[in-house]
Amino acid sequence: QADVDAGQIANTATVRGASSGGTQAQASATRTVTLDRTATLAFTKTATPGNVPTAGGVVTYAFRLQNTGSTTLTGVSIADPRTGVSALAYTWPGTAGTLAPGQVVTATATYTATTADVAAGSIVNTATATATAPTGAISRTATATVLAVPDPLPDAATTPQGVPVVVDVLANDGPAATGATLSRAQLSATPALVGGAAAPVPASPTSGSVTCVASGTDRGRCTYRSVDGFTGVDVFDYALQSAAGTWNVRVTITVTPVNRTAVARADRLVATIGGPDVMIDPRANDTDVDGDALAITGATPPAALPGSFSCSAVLCMYRPPTTGTAGSTAIAYAITDRPGAPGTGIAATSTITVYLDPAPLVPRGFTHRDDAALGASTGTWTSTTTVTAATASCVAGRPVTALAWTAVPGATDQLVERRLAGTTPGAWITVARLAGTVTSFSDDRLGESRSYQWRVRPDLQRWLGVASAPSVAVAQPAAVSAVGC
């Protein structure tokens, strides 16, 4: 190696001898061979992590310098002039500052990102390696670029019960969203988590469905729809991937309660001319999907009604006439929910039909006997129906399940009810009231990745029929892309 470093090999040979007469003689010859030699360096610089989202983030630089020439290099050093870069920590293969051909020296340094770096969007840094070869000084440079892109931000929205809400999830994400891929599906095995997002698969809503637009002018607009009857907090995540990193970001939706109109159903009462007063509570067959209390707010008997009719908040009374003609008369009545919070309830109306029967005949010339053993019964409405296999699919990017059932002769309405399936099923809730002749329905107010059961209950006037057996549980599809299910 010393010959190569010197650049030549000089060699002298000497020959000696003696004549027959004893005379000594010698001669010398010298030859110098010039050697080819090179003085080169291979220099790289890398930075970890590739993105520093906030001021105060620490960047670690790694340097690698190799003697790729054929001569020994001395005075080897690496300089990184950027203000704030720490002193380099070297790992030498031998003597510090010296590299034989093929030898490698490594070094590390750290740098703490500043507010100015984040504002600039990147940290660009160049280091210089220098060394002295037998032929003179040599140098190389290497540059590393670290992005300074802030993490995207979580989103939140509030919507009334049953009202879809659109959230532009990219609007507050800044540079992180520029050129990034948006998806509801997993984009990385190790995403950065923002706002409590799930990993590695973004979370789907449990009480609704969501559809997100991945491209075009509406890119980033996600539409959330809650299931019927849901109030409270639901969440979903979206994934974002760019050169700066990959994130799963949480979106929180708050669904506020909205009062819904109660269902007032028709009633009937039977009285006798000259007979006793008849009481009826028309609320008995009325329902409120929100479970609110109901109160009677009034009744409007027509002028032609025989007798008198009046109502309190909880009961109506009909006093039949002592004389008159038998017949029937419809009386409009009104109810409201939330009677304890005046001004917040919603009115609903229906009718009470009064059937006035003739006075009984007065016995003449014979006697009668009361028999306490005789009884009366309203009977039982036993007609029912059967829900066939429900089919889950996707419509407009959200779950939907198609239902079908057999017709029930005589039914005036069909109530479609749904509950969450599972070891402990949820409560049955009414999702639709349909005409008695309808035998199918598509339910699209469902939560992703949840399992439901349905049943159908026929209705004959005020007599509510026997509900069908619950359908087989049907699992809803989950989101697999930015466009929903």
TrEMBL record:
Do you know which InterPro entries this protein is assigned to?
DUF7507 (IPR055354), RapA2_cadherin-like (IPR040853)
Record's protein name: Cell wall anchor protein
Signal sequence: where? none
Pfam families cross-referenced by the UniProt entry: Cadherin_4, DUF7507
Please name the taxonomic classification of the source.
Bacteria, Bacillati, Actinomycetota, Actinomycetes, Micrococcales
Domain DUF7507, by residue range, is 40-137
Residue ranges constituting the RapA2 cadherin-like domain according to the UniProt record: 250-310
Source taxon at top rank? Bacteria
